[in-house]
UniProtKB/TrEMBL annotation:
Domain of life per record: Bacteria
Residues in YchJ-like middle NTF2-like domain copies: 29-122
Lineage: Bacteria, Pseudomonadati, Bacteroidota, Flavobacteriia, Flavobacteriales
Identification of the protein by name: YchJ-like middle NTF2-like domain-containing protein
Record InterPro entries: NTF2-like_dom_sf, YchJ-like_M
Length: 125
């Protein structure tokens, strides 16, 4: 039985976000990168999250921080509210470490450099 991708697409993970996370393909749009980053949180792929964060935003502890947050939460679903060429507004639904339902609502900004998309930063609602 094949299930839909973690990002909410009706495509299986191995045909949707996994090729981006594994490095087989590059995300062609900011929205695809956002979706694959959500799937990376859900599957605990911190290296991908660091690699797709713009170099201006990377810190020496980023990988450890994102991995801890990814593991501490149980990711439920992703809702794309609005997307433009360089921004994505989304809601990520999850259960926190106390198993309390949470919604991470963010307007993310992305930039494309040398044909690759990167997450730059986000504003939270």
């Amino acid at each position: 039985m094949t299930t839909n991708c973690f990002c909410g697409a009706s495509t299986p993970f191995d045909l949707c976000c996994e090729p981006f996370i594994s490095g087989k393909n590059n995300a062609p749009t900011a929205e695809k990168l956002m979706r694959s980053r959500y799937s990376a949180f859900a599957t605990h792929h911190a290296a991908y999250l660091v690699a797709t964060t713009h170099k201006s935003e990377r810190t020496s502890t980023l990988k450890e921080e994102v991995l801890q947050w990814a593991i501490a939460n149980q990711w439920q679903k992703l809702e794309i509210v609005q997307a433009t060429a360089t921004t994505v507004t989304f809601k990520a639904y999850y259960m926190d470490f106390n198993r309390q339902p949470q919604i991470h609502h963010e307007l993310s900004t992305f930039v494309q450099e040398d044909g690759l998309w990167y997450y730059v930063d986000g504003s939270f609602f």
